[in-house]
Amino acid sequence: MEHPPLIVHPPQEDGRLMTILGEPVGVAKSLVDVEDLLRRAGINPDEIALDSPDLIEWRGGGPEVWS
Prior knowledge:
15% of the residues lie in helices and 25% in strands. By secondary structure, the protein is of the alpha+beta class. It has a 4-stranded mixed β-sheet with strand order 3-2-1-4, covered by helices on one side. The chain is globular and about 30 Å long.
């Protein structure tokens, strides 16, 4: 099975690594950071559902887990 294009990796001490199409785009410490990283990558976070398993994979816990 192919992975979704956006992956938020398991929590680490400094936050959660986020990758888009396998490329690291930054570390998020909150949903606000995830949205900011998406904007920097040219993706409007208002146009995607952060809970869509076809678009984003949350590893090590969902969007409510940050530590």
